[in-house]
């Protein structure tokens, strides 16, 4: 009977951990960085996956079928916080190289999404004209994965106690801590990216859409991306690219666009 009770108690504990992490793994909203003018008019749209958004009332998506993707603006990037500096990539010329990589990767990811997603009706072009929109994005915050810290922590997972490996136990214990640090503070312990973006009419240059979002790496007991400097960040950007293409092709403003995953059940 005691063994059965332990098993039930363990299952309940595990379920509570998962619920806790699912509730806490959404990154805090990034404060306005200045790339979007008049951010006070933005709001939380329940049909969009972003923290804040604004859509011009007379914006008619059907009037456009071409889009220009501007080079990503890195001039509004927030300086790393104390914990965010705990990576050798932030020193010497690494930071500038990383900013260049991040800008190029983001632009390529969006262009690839427009070119490859089935059903997309927008052609990516490099010239202004009627029926053409312009997408401008700025990366305003960037926290890479602490791959060295995660690797060191993983070493503790395999220290046996009474012949039971701590692999799963360590993951379960640290998972809610990671989720809490990521979801309730700007701790810098978890990978995250924040962007501000505007979609303009290419001829009149009027802003038609504006949105801002910050996403952190999904919670997981164990995931191989925790040991890669770029993996979580690039995955977030790739999902953003899909969301942007979906936004540009949705049939109605009431069409809901799904958000990014909050929990990873597979280790790869």
Word description of this protein:
The structure is a single chain. The protein is of the alpha/beta class. The chain has one domain. Helices cover 35% and strands 16% of the residues. The chain is built from 5 helices and 6 strands; from the N terminus they run H-E-E-H-E-E-H-H-E-E-H. The protein has helices spanning 2-24, 94-116, 147-156, 167-184, 231-249; strands spanning 52-55, 66-69, 123-124, 132-143, 192-201, 207-216. A 6-stranded mixed beta sheet has the order 1-6-5-4-2-3, covered by helices on one side. Strand 2, helix 2 and strand 3 (123-124) form a beta-alpha-beta unit. Helix 1 runs parallel beside helix 4 and helix 2 (94-116) runs parallel beside helix 5 (231-249). It is globular and about 40 Å long. 31% of the residues are buried.
Quick structural overview:
Helix content is 35%, strand content 16%. It has helices at residues 2-24, 94-116, 147-156, 167-184, 231-249, and strands at 52-55, 66-69, 123-124, 132-143, 192-201, 207-216. The protein has a six-stranded mixed β-sheet, with helices on one face.
Q: What is the number of helices?
A: 5
The strand count comes to 6
Terminal Cα separation, in Å?
37 Å
Q: What is the helix content?
A: 25-40%
Taken from the alpha-carbon principal axes, the silhouette is: globular
Which structural class do you get from the secondary structure elements? alpha/beta
Radius of gyration: 21 Å
């Amino acid at each position: 009977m005691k063994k059965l009770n332990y098993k039930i108690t363990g299952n309940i504990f595990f379920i509570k951990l998962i619920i806790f992490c699912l509730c806490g793994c959404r990154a805090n909203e990034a404060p306005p960085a200045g790339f979007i003018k008049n951010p006070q008019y933005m709001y939380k749209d329940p049909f969009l996956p972003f923290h804040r958004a604004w859509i011009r009332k007379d914006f008619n998506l059907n009037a456009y079928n071409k889009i220009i993707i501007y080079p990503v603006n890195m001039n509004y990037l927030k300086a790393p916080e104390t914990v965010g500096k705990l990576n050798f990539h932030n020193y010497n010329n690494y930071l500038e190289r990383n900013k260049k990589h991040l800008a190029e990767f983001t632009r390529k990811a969006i262009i690839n999404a427009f070119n490859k997603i089935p059903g997309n009706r927008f052609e990516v072009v490099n010239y202004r004209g009627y029926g053409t929109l312009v997408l401008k994005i700025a990366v305003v915050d960037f926290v890479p994965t602490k791959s060295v810290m995660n690797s060191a922590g993983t070493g503790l997972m395999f220290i046996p106690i009474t012949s039971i490996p701590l692999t799963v136990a360590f993951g379960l214990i640290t998972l809610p801590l990671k989720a809490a640090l990521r979801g309730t503070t700007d701790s810098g312990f978890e990978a995250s990216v924040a962007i501000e973006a505007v979609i303009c009419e290419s001829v009149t240059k009027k802003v038609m859409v504006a949105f801002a979002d910050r996403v952190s790496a999904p919670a997981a007991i164990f995931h191989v991306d925790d040991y890669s400097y770029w993996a979580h960040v690039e995955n977030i950007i790739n999902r953003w690219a899909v969301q942007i293409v979906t936004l540009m092709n949705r049939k109605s403003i009431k069409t809901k666009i799904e958000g990014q995953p909050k929990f990873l059940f597979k280790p790869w």
